[in-house]
Amino acid sequence: MTRETIVEGVRNGITSMHGLIAQGRGEAFDYLIGEKTTKSAAQAEKAAAAALLLAEKPVISVNGNVAALVPREIIRLSESVNAPLEVNLFHRTEERVNKIIEYLRSLGAKKMFTKSNGTIPGLEHERGKVDAEGILIADAVLVPLEDGDRCKALVEMGKIVLAIDLNPLSRTAQCATITIVDNITRAVPNISKFAEELKSLKKEALLELVSEFDNKRNLALAMEEIVKNLYGRGGIRTPDLQLSPEL
Ligand code: PTJ
Question: What is the four-CA torsion angle of 71, 72, 75, 76, rounded to 10 degrees?
């Protein structure tokens, strides 16, 4: 069903052809993590929800895959943490940007940054285009399925970057502040759920949740989950494997 949704996205001019390749890669990694939200992914989703609630100018970046797979869920998250949406494409065409904006609006999105009057330093012109009041000055940006160069550029601007990426080895996963190794179809509703739960907490408690989150450790747990699944299914023989007690 998810695959059909992405294909439909390409047919409607919302998703790029490259989005199909990304989807295939995502499916492979999803299979390796067991097609479920792991404990470590849930921890990252909770920390990301806290970071979004703490941010003064949070923005949620939307690309062609996000718009096809979780349009309603991303609007709900945007409202829940008060983070406007900004369509920010890797394979940018004005036509596709406008189609996605129209599509999200037709589903009820209200708060959106829609200009392209800012530039992320260090990126090639088209890929660096952002809204000068949105991603450019945001203190926290949620980037589902992001390209590694852009993730790095945003981190170098001093932003808190929250990535959703099923591949724990991708450059995006490795360089983000908080990486959620989970399928976007599960991750976005989970972050919304955590945000609702955490909303009533004091700022100090939210800060503690974010500061005690260790991204390197969390990524290592995601890798171990993959190894455990491979080993458990008899795919590889690693008799000396030592897994973390958390798993
Ligand atoms: O719409 P555009 O032009 O902005 O393009 C969007 C894509 C995703 C095509 C573009 O950003 C791209 O090419 O991304 P990459 O470099 O292929 O990286 C996408 C990452 O997302 C890969 O590491 C995939 O494993 C991962 N991924 C794919 N599907 C999902 C996913 N992660 C979470 N949930 C998924 N459903």
Answer: -150
Each residue's pLDDT tens digit, 195-224: 999 999 999 999 999 999 999 999 999 999
Which contacts (CB < 8 Å, 24+ apart) does range 188-192 have? 188/70, 188/73, 188/74, 188/77, 188/144, 188/164, 189/70, 189/73, 189/76, 190/37, 190/42, 190/45, 191/45, 191/48, 191/49, 191/52, 191/77, 191/81, 191/142, 192/49, 192/73, 192/76, 192/77, 192/80
Structure tokens at 98: 């406008």
Mean pLDDT over residues 88-114, rounded? 97
pLDDT on residue 240: 60
Calpha distance 165→145 (Å, rounded): 5
Name the residue with tokens 């970046």. 61
Query: How would residue 94 be classed by pLDDT, with cut points 50, 70 and 90?
Result: very high
Q: Which domains, and CATH codes, for the chain?
A: 2-218 (3.40.50.12640)
Average pLDDT, the chain: 94
**pLDDT of residue 245 exceeding 80:** no
From ligand 1's centre to the CA of 144, what distance in Å?
Answer: 8
Cβ of 14 closer than 6 Å to ligand 1, yes or no, is no
- Nearest residue CA, atom 20 of ligand 1? 145
For residues 23-37, average pLDDT: 96
